[in-house]
Amino acid sequence: MRLSRYFLPVLKETPAEAQIASHRLMLRAGMIKQQAAGIYSWLPLGWKVLRRIEQIVHEEQIRAGHHPMLMPTLQPADLWRESGRYDAYGPEMLRIRDRGDRDMLYGPTNEEMITDIFRSHVTSYRELPLTLYHIQWKFRDEVRPRFGVMRGREFLMKDGYNFDLTREDALHAYNRHLVSYLRTYERMGLQAIPMRADSGPIGGDDTHEFLVLAETGESEVFYDSEITDLTFGDREVDYDDPAQCAAILEEFTSRYARTDETHDEAEFDKVPEDRRRSARGIEVGQIFYFGTKYSEAMGATVQGPDGKPVPVHMGSHGIGVSRLVGAIIEASHDEKGIVWPEGVTPFHCGIVNLRQGDASTDSACEGIYAELVKAGLEPLYDDRDERAGAKFATMDLIGLPWRITVGPRGLKTGVVELTSRRTGESEEVSPEVAVARMKDVYGSAGV
Ligand code: ATP
Ligand code: MG
Predict the structure, then answer these.
(1) Is the beta carbon of 154 within 6 A of some atom in ligand 1?
(2) Do 291 and 396 share a structural domain?
(3) pLDDT in the model for residue 200
(4) Which domain holds residue 387?
(5) Which of 385, 324, 350 is nearest to 150 (CA)?
(6) C-beta of 142 in contact with ligand 1 (< 6 A)
(7) For residue 412, what are the CA distances in angstroms to 352, 358, 361, 408?
């Protein structure tokens, strides 16, 4: 992409309404525009990051054997009357009436609808196990929408639902989700710690929330600092192997880690004092096992091995896709702007032309641009007729992990500058080496 033709409405001023870094930076970098309280347009740069995050979520869900699909945002109220949640949900639910006077709602979640789909089509235990998911906009009329996309009213969520014959199978599905989530967040450059949580209005037995540590997080968390040494890495996982998934869950959840809702001082005191931490965290996902709550209320049964109908065991599993954009920025920024992890960056690198209009500089930039595109990468080429300082400030603000700076002085000796946004370190290399380095970096990041 050439910046001269792109739509990147960066702001010079710091918007007064933004209280936290991610909100400020998303507005300043021209990623979002607020349309109403907690409702945002995603401008081109923001949209690209959202898509990268969605893509990672899809890849990891499919890897775990879960099936993507899409349910509508609007739902008939009658489904929710069956589960009893139409009245129970309260003012967070946006209720709508259509021209035929039918009660509708903008879905805050999809347990009822997926259970309806299941009961319409699945009749035998032989069709299990089954996990379906979608990535769709949700609406919750939050009392206090704030912090930009972190607590919106309309927000994008991945929500998945497992259907299993037995509690044991459903617990494997739960573990499988936990494992797939660990890999998902790590690919986004995040450490998200699974913490035992309260089950809240969805109700149920087992639940973990995934929290990213950040001062601006809304949750209070308590944990054993050893947890922060754990990494998932590129280990091979057989998602059909219950023992392996259970072992990974054990590895990542055996140390103390809880939110304030389930925090237990007596248990916490058993952690050696120098490893006890209390901090703030951002909830970026949650998994639940809730058994037969919805299947019994809504008649989602299958014929079991003995021919008798049995209600299926279910769970639901959510990732806050749009919240993640903010969470990643909270975890990765500095005073100049965003610092994107390579896994989610909107463009792989920036090219800064220091002397626009100078024939040899222009042609070196064009050459690098063409080679990067040929390698399947997406560079953002700042080809505007601007001062170098302004170009650097824009690149730093929007946070691309790498910058290739091209100017007449370097070109005299055949070099350009390759700069890491994270460390600020620069190296002088030939244009060919700069391109090769980008291929290497993103090749190994699996991009
Ligand atoms: P919270 O406690 O933050 O209100 P929740 O527990 O009600 O969230 P879930 O039902 O667990 O939310 O939804 C799954 C995920 O969707 C959450 O982990 C979070 O990342 C995201 N999410 C929930 N509410 C919002 C919101 N208002 N804006 C953006 N993302 C949200
Ligand atoms: Mg939650």
Answers:
(1) no
(2) no
(3) 59
(4) 347-444
(5) 324
(6) yes
(7) 17, 13, 10, 6
Q: Which letter does DSSP use for residue 385 in this model?
A: S
In this structure, are 361 and 403 located in the same domain? yes
Q: Which residues surround ligand 2, an ion (CB under 5 A)?
A: 286
My answer on whether 330 and 369 are in the same domain is no
CA 304 to chain centre: 37
Please work out whether the CB of residue 160 comes within 6 Å of at least one atom of ligand 1: no
What's the CA gap between 32 and 320, in Å, rounded? 17
Task: In whole angstroms, give the CA distance from residue 181 to residue 118.
Answer: 24
Residue 201: its pLDDT value, please?
55
Instruction: Please indicate, yes or no, whether residues 329 and 378 belong to a single structural domain of this protein.
Output: no
Residue ranges for the chain with pLDDT beneath 50: 203
pLDDT at 14: 86
Distance, CA 8 to ligand 2 centroid (Å)?
Answer: 33
The CATH number of the domain holding residue 410 is 3.40.50.800
Query: CA 227: distance to chain centroid?
Result: 21
What is this structure's pTM?
A: 0.96
202: left (phi over 0), alpha (psi -120 to 50) or beta: alpha
Burial class (CB in 10 A: 0-12, 13-18, 19+), 101: exposed
Query: CA-to-CA distance for 55 and 228, rounded, in angstroms?
Result: 26
CA-closest residue to ligand 1 atom 2: 283
Give the type of residue at 201. Answer: P
The one-letter code for the residue type at 95 is R
